[in-house]
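TODO from last week: model Gliding motility lipoprotein GldK.
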Amino acid sequence: MDMKKFLILTGILILVASCGSKDRGELVGVKGKKWHPEKPYGMELVPGGAFIMGKADDDLAGINDAPAKTVTVRAFYMDETEITNSEYRQFVNWVRDSTIRTKLAILADEVGAAPGDEAGIGQFAFVDADPENMTVYEKYMYDNYVGLGPTGYEGRKLNKDVDIIFDVNEYPDEYYAEVMDTMYLPIELSYNGQRTWDVKKFKFQYTYMDIQKAAKNRNLTRKDVLVKEEIEVYPDTTTWIRDFSYSYNEPMHNDYFWHDAYGDYPVVGVSWKQAKAFCQWRTLNKNAFQKSANKQFVNSFRLPNEAEWEYAARGGLQAATFPWGGPYAKNDRGCFMANFKPVRGDYAADQALYTVEAKSYEPNDYNLYNMAGNVSEWVNGSYDPSSYEYVSTANPVLNDLTNQRKVVRGGSWKDVAYFLQVSTRDYEYADSARSYIGFRTVQDYMGTDVTKNSKNK
């Protein structure tokens, strides 16, 4: 080919390529879906900014674990209330129902029950058991990856279009009855004529990446930094008995978590590890909807860092003792501002004996309820009395996986006013559960333009 023909052909190719492109040959970047910030349900936006973290006044208790320090945090969303019993039950029920559906699908597979069998356990068979209803990708996954996991059923798709039957009189067949029987405690362990769930089988599995570990050692493979967790999700209701010796709290043990009367009260008896699992499930549950609606995935829900919690609790007030300011725990009408133990032996002086509904008392200036009192709250941080001396001043966090002492903040219904102070630090062990510790979640805000400092300009 001579040079003249080559140049003509090259020009034609360039012209064709240009005509088929809308960027006119300019560097315009890759255009994705238009992003519309969406306020998460039940959350409030906490604008990022700088604040003085730690004790502004003398440390009367002499603990010296929270010296005053100026730090800056990003903008984030936070639950306006502590996670309630009703909300946590949604998590527990999801785990229970998923466990039941998996057991039903496995047994249906073992006995050869087909998905079209509407009269028996076959209606709960794996969806991919019917190749006619599988997408090309599902067929590929079925042919290449099914059977490689510990049970041989990893990756199989459950049928969630059929409601689980809980009434024993309506069980479709003996196979269904067999599966449901395994989810309850044995008959010999029942009492009062009722069989109860075997809550030890309510387990949630999830995998996360240890990004800190990956960043510190770039020679590690992805497999080296993936961590798999399996957590029993049911709250430890026995904490109502175990936390208080020589005290009658059996009604709280029996009713507090399950009864609808307490649905809007904060969940307790949940360990730090269970709170983390809840965050993972909430992200999974929300993104499952996002995927079905062809929307972009949302940021992960998580526990707040210690600095984020204190910043949010202060509600924009600098050097305040409590979320409402202070230095007193009463307002100008003589009413207590939170649920705590104001008088020795008199838990009801603040109009509450135990916990109160999550939307009780006045919210702070970020519209967050009970950032002091009601229940203490887990945060995503390990307790070190000297941590303020060495953590970063930008989005500070200390979460040492080898340190099982996890920070709790805010004080509770059984604490004195000192623990209600926004700067007071306390801790409990990660695998421990208490009748006075709950939690709330946060979600990172997309972008950096929402800061308290910028609003003041």
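Done. Residues 203 and 453 are 44 Å apart (CA to CA).
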